[in-house]
Give the backbone structure.
Amino acid sequence: MDALLRLTLLIPLTLTSFFSYAIQYDISINSTKSSIIDVKVNTQSLGAFQVQPSRTAQSDFQPQLTCVTSNGKEDSIQYGEDVTCDSVNWQLSLAEVDKTGFDIAAQNDTFSPEDGWYFISEFNSLPRFHTSKSQNIEALVCPPEGHCETLPSNTQPPLFLVWGLNSITLTINENTVKFFSDNPEILSSSEQWLPVLSQQLKYLSNVFPNAPTKSWNIATFSRDRKAGSVSGAAGSNMILINLLVDGNTISERTLQLMVKIAAHESTHILGTQDMPMWAAESIAEYYAYHSINQTRLKTKTPIQDWRKFKKVFPYATTGLLEASTRVTKDGQYQYYPLFYVKGAAFWQSVNEALQSKGSNLDSLVNDMSFDKNDHLRPSFSGKIVDIIGKEKWTDLSDLFL
Ligand SMILES: [Zn+2]
């Protein structure tokens, strides 16, 4: 390509990126205290604007904001009021990681003074900027290392930032997945699990070819068995996974859980963003099982796990659609586990019925759609009925839905 042509092609691109991100959050480690993070947003070009509270998770905490004007004057800012500043600054105070490891479920801003890694969640930490007419201002968030990330809209999953962790980059179909870990053993023994995870992600990206995201990150943090819980979470750009470890040692079970959670959360990123909660969780869990069971780290099937679970779970007879109403409308989260276990068993049963007629769920899953009550639309269930027959579909609906 000649220089002139390249220049003309470049100009519109540059302008687009300039206009779509009016502001940038510059994140740095405080020069005197490594547990303090300084956030600075240059707001010179904005004129009058407002700062809106950050999204919140487990507390209502909001950072205290400082407005700096060109003469160096510093004033505190009230959320939601019009201001004009050269920059807006605030500080985040990070917790030191616990001896048992980082608890992903809590998603608190955390750092490891020993290993030098940092984790920041958008929750309670990244307030949002609006014009004085209350319109959202697009923003980039730039950690001290690595790429800048777009601040997601407030209907998308939250932004997570990590830096200071070692990583491996995977290329799967046209997707790029960066895998970070605080556990040196998991990175040095990648031949034990990387082929499995790659195979799973390749399968999932073929099932969900229209994924809105082509690159994402997986960050794994060790969590001692003694702590009693491991979790996973999907953010807008990053999946978080706890590695179940004994001391710091990893086992076959560590790897099995890790790749299962990775597949569950990757399914959310690739294909469940428009589904209601019951379907999103049951599909993600079904594909977590289904993708791992095609690899050497094979586990039980959803139906096997459901048979055991239903003997001890007090709400086992409740159908998935009723559980969906109870959870989403009445906040009765005790029904939530049904989405995972009963839900994954439902989709396995549907897939087996389809397979017995020479079809499968993979070829239909992207046609799934829902009515205003979060029930499957007849346009989708009708496709299943056409293949497996009305009687079989009624049986499965009665058993699970
Ligand atoms: Zn999930």
About this structure: The first helix runs from residue 3 to 20. Residues 1-19 have pLDDT under 50 and may be disordered. Residues 354 and 384 are 7 Å apart (CA to CA). The longest strand covers residues 215-224.
